[in-house]
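Encode chain A's predicted structure.
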Amino acid sequence: MLKFLKAFGNGLIVVIIFALLALGIATIALQLPSVQTWAVQTAAGNISQKLGYPITIQKVNIKWFDVVSLEGISVKDSSQAQMIDVGRIDVNLDINNIIDNASRQIYLDEVNLFQPNVHLAVVPETGSLNMDGFIASINRLTAPAVPKPANAPENNIPFIIGKSKIIDGTFHYNDPRKKRDRNPRTFDYSHFELNKLNGELKNFLLQGDTIVFSARNLKALDRQTKLEIHNLDTRFLFCQKKMELKELEANIGNSFLKDEIIFYYNRSGELGDFNHKVRMKGHLTGSRISSKDLGLFSSYVDRLNETWHVSGDFNGKVDDFMLSDADLHFGKGSRIVGDLGFKGLPEIEGVKMNIRLSLSKINPLDLVQYYPEWKEHQTLQKFGLTLLDGTFKGTLDDFVINANSSSSLGKLSGDLDFHITDARTTTYTGEVKTAGFELGTLLDQKETWQELDFEGKVAGKGLELQFASADMNALVRRVGFRNYDYTNIRLDGNLQNQYFNGQVSVKDSNFIVNLEGEFDLSKPRNSFDLQGVVERANLKELGFVKEPVTLRTQLNVNLSGNTVDELTGDAKLLDTYLLMTNQERNLVIDTLVFSSIQQLDKRTLQLESEFVSAKAEGNFLPTEAWKDISRVLEEYKLYFFENEANRTEYYARKPIESVKRYQIDYEVESRNLSRFLAFLSPDIYVSRGAKAEGTFKMDNTAFLTFNAISDTLRYGTNQFVKSEVDVTTSKFVNSAEVLASILVTSDQQQISVLVPTEKLELEGTWDVDHIDFNGAIHQAKSTNLANLAGEIRFLPAGLDIGFTNSRLNLLDETWNVPSESLISIVGKSVTFSNVGFVSGKQRIFLSGTASDDPEKSLTLDVKNFRLGSLNPVFNTQLAGIMDGTARIRDIYNSAMLDAGFNIESLGYGQYEFGNLSGTSDWDPVTSELQIDAQLSKNARRVFNLTGAYRPKLAANTLNLKAIFNHIDFKSLEPFTEGLVSDISGSAQGTVLIKGIVNAPVLEGSLMVENGRMKFDYLQSVFTFSDKINFTESEITASNILLTDEDGNTATVRGGVYHDGFKYFSLGFSADLQNFKILNTTFQDNDTFYGTAYVTGPVSVFGPIDKLNIEANVTSNKNTRIYIPLDGATEVATQDYIQFVSKMPVRDSTSMSAADSVFRGQVSGGIKMDFNFNLTPDATCEIIFDRQTGDIIRGNGSGRLNLNIDTEGDFTMAGTYEIEKGEYNFTLQNVINKKFSIKPGSRIVWSGDPYGAQLDVKAGYTQLVSLVGVLPNTGSVNTTGNDVLSRRYPVEVTIGLSEGLMSPSIHYDLKILDNPSLSAYRGQLEAFQNKLKSDEQELSRQVSSLLVVNQLLPESSLATIGGQSFLGSSISELVSNQISRWASGINENLEVGVSGLSLDQNALTNLQLRFSYRFLNDRFRVTRDGRFASGTQAGTTQYDAASLLGEWTLEYWLNRNGSVRVKAYNRNIQNPFSLNNTVTTGGVSMQFTHSFNRFTPMPKPEVKIPYTIAPDSVRQDTSGKKLLTTKGAPR
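Encoded structure for chain A:
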């Protein structure tokens, strides 16, 4: 175009010159056309000769010297080729104006060119245009005769045309040096032709080498490419240095250019080397460039379908330019804003770029057509619309980029320096940062990976592994993995000589890890060595488990291989520790090893641990096998969860692939799984040796087998013994055909609340479109059984389940499933047809359809159903006959229910509740279920429930009222078994039920009248009458007065607390006053039993299944505690006396059978913490042998703590100090001696009730003769013999120490001081010293005293008359039997006979003791002593004092015996007269008081009234429990 304008201007000058010549000729020729034509032709010929360029004009017409018309104008170049050809030129001028202003300017009013045709051609020899020579010839011709000085100013006369038109012009350009390109989609710069050139020019100026004009409506059409200039308006300037197009508005093809473009060059000839010689400067605004137009000049652009909207400043040459303040819009929303600099165009290779972007945005879809061969477009599109800000400097091989981007994936920034040369020497350094970057979206793993905050540096050399050397240091501030954000991850690594060494450390609040590894990539098979420690991993927070589990382990990984399928080696977890914090469970795993072995084409994957071993082997690839198994299982699901159309569509879309044949044999065997399962879930148990094995074979048919055997499986309350599962399936890979079979067997079962069952069998066979199944199960030790058989048939729309020969035998009842029963499943719609059970007149049927259609309903019909039929199955005690119907609609949405039922004689266990009936009707207007139910007993309604259920409400869906009308309180008894019993009383009141079904809210109260119940574990009975209040989360009582069987009272506060009737817990506290809290016998509890009256605070709290009872009480009168030790296992031997247990061995880790029975009655167990402050009012008995009466019985004081857990443990702690008591020493009913326990004796417990430590001393006093016993008294005189033959008190002391079950026993024997023996003081001391020094002698004497009631003389036992010894033994046995018989006559009577012998001293030695209690033990009469006063001359002497004996009268003035009076008499031997006794007596009054604590003196204080708010909470001092006091009286 520029060349055309230049040529057009030069040609116009020539034409104008000819016009002036014609004008002169016209003047001379007087305007004769022929003359005008001849003159002009003649002049043209002369000029042609002078110029050297042939010029011809065919016709001239001059009208009155102001209009000139030339036709057939032709100018040829120096090679005689056509250069300019104009059909006609019309010139409108003012001749006078031209003549007058000839020295200043030449002005033409108008010039119109018709059909101008300009041929510009390059002269091959010189490289200049043909037009250049023509203009140079004109310049020579018109040059002045005298050459102008070089420094003389230009004096060019301007040539001006007011306006001009070009009509139907043509412009040709040809460079014969260049090869012609005739591609219609290529604009040939060297050979082109513009046709249909039309336009208007104004203010045309030609002065020297400068041409200026304004062009309007300029149009043209390129002949070859058909590129059309629709309209071009501009203010044009052309000279030898530049060419301007200002005020440009050009519509060219589909493009539009606006504003200005300036071309700078040194000479016009440089336009021929436009890309390298011409500098462009311009400003574009609102311009539009179409790829269809620009593609004519670039084959690369021609492939695009794009329109660029451009604004900006352009400066530079094509091969080195800068587009400043650019604003480039392209594609569907992409925009580049900034400065774009390129150097080296139009070639792409080696182009240097200097790009600065600001607030730019790129839509990845807009880039696809620019680089269609790039494979990462799909990945790039995940970024979405991306905002860019940054710089790029350099070439595509050597560049520095510093940029920030923000996209839908997040923020990404980088500062990178690349020097790309070759694979060996390329270097790179830089830093990359991300913020909130959606890594999972980029990797197509949204469920696995989430946002990434990353900051890292890398520096390296080499692009291929064998040459690469690099260092990396990075910090992952945050990365989301499986919906958890890991933080503070440090990455450090070095790659050198195909060897990588790196460290990874994580310091997250829930994940602390330190790893280091070495990767050897230099060998044909890569090897990986990784070690590290997972210090802490909170698996719940990390999203791996649902329970709070903490993991610690060591990692040791050694693998080799180049792909996942090639990996071999092992990975070990060492010293793994798992802790489940909320359950306080932990697990230690010594070693867990996963290994992979490859031998030829056989691969083995193996898992080894102390808990389980697993192995899979075969000719398979792990990733391929995993994909195949997953796909096969999903295809099995299509049968159950999709219809035939979906299955057909699936297989139609599934590509038919050639299947690689392989086989996997696998097996899993359990070892010691108990610890692992106890940690994972205590509800699960799998016995050792359980095994699962099978085969997966892949060919044209996928073949899968599975066989599992276990001795015992248990989950919660479900248990299966000796069970086996066998599955075999085969399926065509490329079709839907399936064959399968399954067999499940189990010898014994315990399924949830059902009764124990056995012989479970379940079999199924899958044959393409149907599954035949049958099964059976039997109740253990019963004829009850269930048979289930039928068919599952897969239909085009879904599947049908039919039943044949299915029945349930319960005792004498047979329940049959009708053969026409059918269940049809189509999508979410399930239709039941005649499905149910029938037994005689009893019927349970389900019919109808469960679907989304609210018009369809499901109906349950029950007729004459005996609830007792459920008892053999659920091990319940239900009773009653039920009839009812329930219909439910819109089951998946609103679930509208209409129902009615009636249960006649509803009962549980031994209790009958009455007749229960009710109805429920759905109200479509109010969307409510109206409920009305009532319970009647003895023709009286005792309970009524009315109201509505409103399921469509967001809250308060329940609006019910429950009315209790003297309902029997005993109705609670069947549900409190093991906790309380013997319940009686009645309750009445009203309770409102609000809230929702899962969390009802109760408001109201019940008045309990004559309430009575017994707390089973303690056997304590109490009665009460008071109000029970119901609130949102509480069932409470305020200061209920409990009364025991003896009329003693206790005040109880607290209640039952819950959260929406879930998580029930108790919170009661009581203040007891001499309350009978314990009333058990040995049959109730063989650990301890008795009767306890206590005073003090007691609290009951905790969940119902883990109830806690705490007491801090003081014993009162009539408290008797028994601790039986019949289970003792130790034997203590002391020469002649042996203490031997009669009971079996007791294992301290186990409980007795009685314990097991009792504790099994209490669901969940009860924990009791009793702090007993025992006073002398309480009697404690430790029973060693209840058969022989071997018992320690005492009264004393102490503080004992008893911790009792009905599920297992019983501990005692504390010290009991005996103030007075007795120890019944027995031996096979031969010996029965009552030892008096000495004050200060104590028993100390520190945990185990049977592990108490004894420190007990007990004494027994016996009157014996000392004849022959004392040294040198075997032959005394008669007087001395009488003195020694009298009976003197001798005391045997037994000391028990160390363990209660195996005490250490020691003895002592002492002759008590007596004035009558003063003459034998020396012999007494000698006898005592001998006993101390000779333990054998001491044992002999103690044994003799206890067995025969006499001491052995100095001579041996053999010298004693056998008759005397035998007589003493028999007399002792008779004495013991008489004592026991007399004591059994009356429980208030105690009789003791001793001293009975068969010798001459029988009457002298005989002693009688009896005691009788009156007035509830407050008055006691006691007699003791011998009947004879002694002997004289061998004759037994009697007197009134000896016959009357020693009497004691004792009376308690108050109930607890702290104040008492006593009267007594005593017979004392006269020290001066051995044969006489002196009777003395007396009266005493005694006051005793036990002090458990010291109370400091009160300090003066100011009393401030204090009241508790009605809804406040106060603290129970006994157990430090918080108890509500809502509504409690103050």
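Residues 1128-1163, 1276-1280, 1356-1367, 1492-1530 have pLDDT under 50 and may be disordered.
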